[in-house]
Amino acid sequence: MPEKVILDCDNTLGLPFHEVDDGLALLYLLGKKEFDLLGVTTTFGNGSLKQVFNQTANLLADLGAEIDVYEGESRKAPGKETPASRFLVEQAQKWGKDLTVIGTGPLGNLAAASHLDPQFLFKVKRVICMGGKFHPLRVGRLDLSELNFSANPQASFQVLTSGCNLTVATGHVCTQVYLDKKAIDQFTFWSKRFRRHLKQWLFTFGAYCGTHVFYLWDLLPVVYLTKPALFEVAKMRLASNVDDLQTGKLVVGKKGDYPEVDFLVNILDLEGFMQEISSTWETSCGLYPI
Question: Cα 229 to the chain's mean position, in Å?
Fold first, then answer.
């Protein structure tokens, strides 16, 4: 039986001058027949909640993928019960340890689900998320701000310190993989229109940071789900408090009763990683042309 997955994201793929990595992660999951994507829950982050929900619903509709999208946390109403938090709780109750939740945006929906059911994070098999930084994240000419855990530090603290089966891909390891213009042009299975959209983000990100690439941040959690052998994983005790998480800062605890978290600390085979996402995107494009 395929493993059940829910993607909790802040996708803005298709919206001009906005991030594309959540959408690329979604396209990757659609190419994996061994996983059953039960639904997509949305949160503010890369855009407003309305933008994220609409872009995700429109993307799936354009692809012809019959996957439901659930509206979640907005910036103005953190912690509120939403269709997304209810869906997460219902699916955890239904599937239990057959369900993995992947969080590629702020963690408010997962925290809200935990308010509805305090055992939510422990009922599921695991949570895999992207966010946080141990030290300044230098990209091009800038130290980038952390934009996932810091967007709702209270929710992040609740999830990260829960003691559930949790794996985190930090911003640092995510900078090991990227796309440039040459790489985008090689994905000939995608339409020219879609590749032009990726190049628009490439130039937008490059102009902001002074680089000629954009990073594949949110691909790491989904690739880890399917190909864990590509990664080096280290267990660390997380001592970050809410104040630390205001900036997404991750603090390793040396002593004390801190929860143990699995961190992706290195990609062991960069060529294998890129081959994996390319072949899976090609598969998903065969099923859902874009």
Answer: 19
